[in-house]
Amino acid sequence: MTRLTEIMExxxxxxxxxxxxxxxxxxxxxxxxxxxxxxxxxxxxWALVFHDAYSRSRRQEFLDxxxxxxxxxxxxxxxxxxxxxxxxxxKQGKSQCNGLIGQAWAVEAxxxxxxxxxxxxxxxIAEAVLSLHPYDARSHAWRVVEVDGQVMGADRTxxxxxxxxxxxxxxxxxxxxxGFCQIPAARDFSAHLGRITRLTNxxxxxxxxxxxxxxxxxxxxxxxxxxxRRRGSEPAFAQNYLSVGYHSFVLYGLGLLRDRxxxxxxxxxxxxxGLIGRGLNTARKHLWGLPPGENAxxxxxxxxxxxxxxxxLMFPDLARHYAASGPGPEEWLASxxxxxxxxxxGLMDRDAPDPIGLAARIYEAMRLPDWDIRTGx
Length: 377
Fold this sequence. Notes:
The chain is mainly α. It has one domain: Glycosyltransferase (Alpha/alpha barrel), CATH 1.50.10.10. Helices cover 48% and strands 6% of the residues. Strand 5 and strand 6 form a beta hairpin. The radius of gyration is 19 Å and the shape is globular.
């Protein structure tokens, strides 16, 4: 048996050896998407790994590393036009901001560490970036803002909208800032979340929000569950294939919203609870024991085992469709680590399409209890 604290500290020690003097961490390539990234995303994730290790061990070297990482993030070069973070290197057809999720991941570390250490500059940058994004009340979705400040269309990617809302809420509650300009948007989004949430015909969360509340999503019922590759180009993944791979990531994001609510209050309006319950059961039936390589986005890109463990902790009252005999949160975590934690490197970097990216995403386990786990390490 190994405790989660030991795994997190092993990763943090390995991360210390990887950190550059300016605080940057090695950049990945966005997993199966193969988008060359800047160091922003990895550095933000590792800042939280280091801070979590400091919280568990009180070792100064981890705190110093977390501060170096955050200082790297707030440097002007990370936002070259003073707008959003440059998360991807230039690539035809792709935004450099990496949509809403690139910004959500960047500010997550600044909010949590800025709040814990009382560093105004971290919180100021986080607020500025979140505030840049206009909210479209008609479609109940935030619009994307490119690194040069150009406002783009509303992002229909469901998981990105969920995570952006979670970061808006996290900032508002961390700061206790009732005047934060995004609070009305977050309230509207949450109020309509049950109406724009759709499940596929196999009860995965659809990769895209509904085009209109109450409408059916064509790609939720007709796309095959396969990944395709255009000849001579990057992979083109069918929507249901993405829905499978991002299912746990959606549940984790919804868990972040539930985690921020006062004890005893429901997450969102009536209707979403049943969808979450069905989603948890889908995870038990189809994601538990998913063969390696079956879906490029499950386990080896999105840390499925960590994410489902957290969702089960956040939604015990909504898991009525989840079989009593199903694996518990500790077992999901153990499955993730057994698949991908590498004892030789001390990182969660084994059998991954983007080892650098997956190693950094162990930060998501910081919200789990310090369980005894079987890792095979």
